[in-house]
What we know:
This protein is of the alpha/beta class. Helix content is 37%, strand content 17%. α1 links the parallel β1 and β2. The protein starts with 7 loop residues before the first strand and ends with a helix.
Amino acid sequence: MLKNFKPILIIAGDPKSIFLEIYFKSLKRNKFKSPLILIVNENILLRQMKLLNYNFKINKLNINNLSYKNLTNKRINIINVPFNNKFISKYIYQSFEKALSLIKKNNNITLINGPINKKKILKHRFLGITEYLDFKTKSKGKAVMLIYNKNLSVSPLTTHLPLKKVHKYISKKKIINHVQQITKFYKKNFGINPKIGITGLNPHCESNFQKSEEEEFIIPAIKNLSKKKFKVSGPYAADTIFLKEKSKDFDVIVGMYHDQVLSPIKSMFGFNAINITLGLPFIRISPDHGPNVKMFLKKKSNPDSLIKAIKFLDK
């Protein structure tokens, strides 16, 4: 295999999401160097292609005898996954199993996955795909969600938790791992030691009722990391850290829960961001949006985040 020849596996994900629409749009608007391999049910692909008025040729691959040498993107390369509408979760898990088996055989492969309906498919076994892949790769809780934009990225310490449970999942160890994984990623991919700002959990980083999480976990973690020469500071009040004059001081802002940092970043950059999972044995990316079932087959979905995801890996 050529040194810079890096196939990109793409899991189509939820069969009733906007993903195939934005995938077709991505192929029409761009020419990618790396061969793309779509893991999908063939009938779902053909049906949506017809309903969305696209006419791509299909190249059906054999997963048990797969050669990457002559693959191009002149046709849609697919690995077929059986599908039964009564067992959608089985279809999703089988898609990931096929991808993970190929990655295990070839560490030159990277992974993108389309969005899934977490409640219907993960069924309370995992908070999200980040945690699922952490479990499957035996990464021991080191997986970190990074919503990446070249101007400013964010990373929630906890992912898809109910707010009432967030404080139970905050720890000094978790904050330290977060900063370590983010720093490692930035050094490897961009050659910089990133400046990381950390928010508090409570309004104004304080609690008038009991000892705060800032005092108990966040400040001790920041002091520990600072002694080890990580460029980290905080805690900062979440209502002001994203102000233009303040946020420009950071490469990454780490927040305590999902919407604390994802709401501001989406307001700032819209679809110009991608979801990267750090701490795994391979690079995994997904577009920074959900299945958006309400827009299914309406031909109005924006492919920018998927295009950004592919281009990030297409090197």
